[in-house]
Amino acid sequence: MFHDNTISPGISWYEFSVAERPTYPVLHETKECDVAVIGGGFTGLSASYHLAKAGLRVVLVDGARFGDGASGRNGGQLGTGQRQWVEKLEKALGHERAKALFDLAEEAKKDILELGNKIDLDYFPGQLSLIHKKREIAAYQAHVENMLRYGYDQLSFMDRKETQDRLGSDFYYGGIRDTGTGHINPLKLVVGLASLASKAGAELYEKTPATSLEVKNDKCIITTPDGYIKSAHVLLATNGYNQTLRGFVDRTIIPIRSYIGATAPLPIDSEILRGGEAVDDSRFVVRYFRKSVDNRLLFGGVESYDKAVADHLADRIRAQMVEIFPKLSEIELTHCWGGTVAITVERMPYIRDIMQNVTYCGGYSGHGVMLAPFMGKLYAESITGKGDRIHSFKELKISPFPGGKTLRRPLLWLAMRFFALMDRF
Ligand SMILES: Cc1cc2nc3c(=O)[nH]c(=O)nc-3n(C[C@H](O)[C@H](O)[C@H](O)COP(=O)(O)OP(=O)(O)OC[C@H]3O[C@@H](n4cnc5c(N)ncnc54)[C@H](O)[C@@H]3O)c2cc1C
């Protein structure tokens, strides 16, 4: 039922929750197509589906198996709006552009819910965004009001008492309840999107890494260990993995490992998240958790930039969880796993034409569950001449991470240690 994932650590609980995870062949020949897609996560699979549905010849390769990147292993939380709140976007971009980005995110959410009619996603409504520092209360209250200006009336502010009742813990100062979003099983979305893409006519290959990508005489040429793909366009949907093609986006995409642990099923009468909502908090290094369909707590929040954390992962996840839910100090963590999140300095997606006819879509900064499939659709829209809404993302300023090739990693490590420390005060 499950397999050995070569690019992300640990076997996830999701592996046991899908009835079937079909395999796709390895590419052993030369292919010609209209669009070649590198990366079979939400972005690549969704783009392939929409492109093939529009009648284009599509070939997708993934170096691992579909979903082995972030898409099949994440927290499953949809959220509302972009990763950055509208207040911040409005300051940087003005109301009109901030509103346009908000509306696109709402459409992305609607799309996922509609996909739920074709794919069983285990969708469950409700999201609590919780306040970790007392001084953040006013900003959270104001956010509920500000969202009304964006036409979004599904938020309500929760005081400490209501938060405690809904969460089953008095750890947070309050928060926002969002009844207009929810959470899904992400691996089911991966499996479903792959099936839709394949049925629409896209050719899908797993365990086929793209080892080089070049553009010659208007043709894009992708090399794989045992084949070639020649195409008019390429979508680079490698997100934070970029196995062999890292050089293309190395300066702007910061890969960070995030880890999740699944507990044994909680007692049926547990007071934890009685309403079944997903939770994220106001830390810089966000803690995020929710219950699974079989009543486990799926708890994320440990991050790392090296492999050392994997050695004592369960202890570190448990320590964070028990801070919030002391009663869970003895509960077994039955599964622990990680994946790579692609972060940008601005914490907004990095969507760019990086060479002639080659577009990179990624860097969703921990907000890709609804945005990545949608970006695949917007990419397809732009290629098939149906619109250029992806431009709203292409024109976002995304800064290179400082430090150059040698200093970037140590600087990042220092920055994240600093922010993790600040979360404590
Ligand atoms: C632990 C964790 C928790 C998260 N929680 C949430 C959450 O709750 N909500 C949310 O919105 N977002 C969350 N995210 C982020 C979200 O999962 C991602 O934004 C989203 O899945 C990105 O999808 P993608 O298709 O762009 O990339 P990925 O799913 O990362 O896929 C990239 C694919 O590219 C392939 N690849 C790389 N290089 C090559 C190559 N050279 N040749 C061929 N294939 C290649 C990889 O094998 C991989 O399959 C989380 C991420 C992680 C890791």
UniProtKB/TrEMBL annotation:
Secretion signal span: none
Domain FAD dependent oxidoreductase residue range list: 34-381
Keywords: Oxidoreductase
GO terms for cellular component: cytoplasm
Organism per entry: Bartonella choladocola
Parts of the chain that traverse the membrane: none
Stated name of the protein: Gamma-glutamylputrescine oxidase
One Gene Ontology MF term: oxidoreductase activity
InterPro entries: FAD-dep_OxRdtase, FAD/NAD-bd_sf
